[in-house]
Amino acid sequence: MDIIGYSYAATEVLEILKHMENEAINKVPKKFIKFLEENSSKEYKPKFDFNRPIKDLNLKPKTRGLLGLIYLKYWANEEEKKAFTKKLKENEEKYQNYVKQKYNSDNLFKNNRNLIIRRESQTVEQVKLPVVYNKTIIQMIIQKIKKFFRK
Predict the structure, then answer these.
(1) Residue 144 class from Cβ within 10 Å (0-12 exposed, 13-18 middle, 19+ buried)?
(2) CA angle 104–110–111, rounded 5-degree value
(3) How far apart are CA 146 and CA 4, in angstroms?
(4) What tens digit of pLDDT does each residue of 19-49 get?
(5) Cβ burial, residue 138 (10 Å; 0-12/13-18/19+)
(6) CB neighbour burial string for 47-85, b if at least 16 within 10 angstroms, e if fewer
(7) Do residues 19 and 50 touch, judged by C-beta distance below 8 A?
(8) 58 φψ region: left (φ > 0), alpha (ψ -120 to 50), beta (else)
């Protein structure tokens, strides 16, 4: 697991929370903020231009995931939660369809000629094999948060 990535994400989330209104910050449990502080990087100092919209801040993917989780759990009303959850499901379905098409076992073996190193030409081809990820980033973040709240 990428601990450094999560510590940088925690640092970025805390930096964003510092620049938010107190009303929004008060909705986030103190225990969760303390968790972020304990797991944040001490040497990483993010520099954001808060005059720009949040989508233009060049946030790390794990930071976006944590902010999405905070939004879903603490800031969104019921309608927004339903819309957000629906969008997450749609994105997950699109991703799963993409992976299914890209790594379909029927298609993998149709072009197996690319995997064979041809001795006749005395050249070696570099082969990129597919990487299979068991969990999405969102699933990993949600699992981490659930683990935190079980303590």
Answers:
(1) middle
(2) 105
(3) 20
(4) 889 999 999 999 999 999 999 988 988 888 8
(5) middle
(6) eeeeeeeeeebebbebbbbbbbbbeebeebeeeeeeeee
(7) yes
(8) left
**Cβ distance 17 to 25 under 8 Å?**
yes
Residue 81, both tokens: 């939660």
Q: Note the pLDDT tens digit of each residue in 71-120.
A: 989 988 999 989 989 998 999 999 999 888 887 776 655 555 555 544 44
Q: Work out how many domains the chain is built from and give that number.
A: 1
Confidence band for 14, pLDDT divided at 50, 70 and 90: very high
Q: Which domain holds residue 113?
A: 3-122+130-150
CB-count exposure of residue 41 (10 Å: 0-12, 13-18, 19+)? middle
* pLDDT attached to residue 33: 92
Find out whether 40 and 9 touch, Cβ atoms under 8 Å: no
In one-letter notation, the amino acid at residue 56 is D
What is the average per-residue pLDDT within 55-69?
88
Report which residue type is found at 112: N
Q: pTM higher than 0.70 for the full model?
A: no
